[in-house]
Amino acid sequence: MREQAFGSRLDCETACPACGARLELELEAAEIRLPSRDVEASDLRMAEGGTVVTFRLPDSVDVAACVDQASDPESALLSRCVVTATHHGAPVDGAALPPGVRERLAERMAELDPQADLLLNLTCPDCARTWQAAFDPAGFLLAEIDAWASRILGEVDRLARAYGWSEAEILALSPLRRRRYLELAGA
User: Fold this and answer.
1) Residue 61 pLDDT
2) What is the reported pTM?
3) Is position 13 within any domain?
């Protein structure tokens, strides 16, 4: 979806955790896209230390629903994705799984959906520090959509002030014509 809207090149920026230097990098979507894996129903079941868990893999709706759970988003996500769980035969809520089981379940989910936990290997050009940074494709896309919407609103504002056109009239212009009118208006 991101490639269709904005193209395959991703312009990213982060800060070095050691010296704070800004690191800019360009990624191609193909560089971070991992092959999908066929997941069998038996893959979505695990047993660990007397606990048996049947689960489903989280999707973007699950992640979005848990972002606002500032106190414990991991427990909220487990509650959504654990279909059934028993500990020594007694039913257990997904959020109440023992820590070792939670850790193994997170590992198992990452094994089954490696695209969900992308890590980039980075090196600071200033201090040579190396580290791994998580890359959140959904968050990156949302930030790009927000930036695009802000840019379009700014263009509409400048053209409406310069020419007195309505928002609908401005948005009906092709991006090339809108850019040309912005140049003529000196914006």
Assistant:
1) 82
2) 0.62
3) no
